[in-house]
Amino acid sequence: MSIRRAVAADVPAMLRIYDDFVRNTAVSFEYTTPTVEEFTRRLEEHIAVYPWLVWEEEGGVLGYAYAGRAFERAAYAWNAEISCYLDASARGRGVGRQLYACIEDILRTQGIRKVFAVVTSANIASVRFHKTLGYRQMAVYREVGYKLGKWYDVIWLEKQLCELGEPARFPISWNEINK
Questions:
Q1: With contact defined as beta carbons under 8 Å apart, do 62 and 87 qualify?
Q2: What are the tens digits of pLDDT across the range 130-142?
């Protein structure tokens, strides 16, 4: 078992995991699984600034977690959004908890103060998971996503990673930490 930085070679394995969520659940609101090229673009865009990690066992990727920009404007730079997707064989074993702990540590080092999780009402297990990790529900957008013949709510959860106070600097990119 290892947690490591995601690389482009991991994209097919991550897409295999994500494909099930896209095609068979309302956990993801995408209707079509991204292409390898699109998913690679997303990975490269994220890792330019934020962490993206994989969980690997016996040479295979069984899960991944990443952070990204929560909001567009400069004043929001101290916030991030977090996501995690696990293969069925990795669920219920503490994999998500360990990936989140690593991502949250990196975000703190970057200077991120608050992290958000955006979860569909189709994924109550994820809501419970986040609350166990100290996230608190802050908003519910009722019936805003339609997938698989049903309307779903979107639940926003937040976690304070650091004291707010007066920031000494803008958050730094993940690449600056890894130099």
A1: yes
A2: 999 999 999 999 9
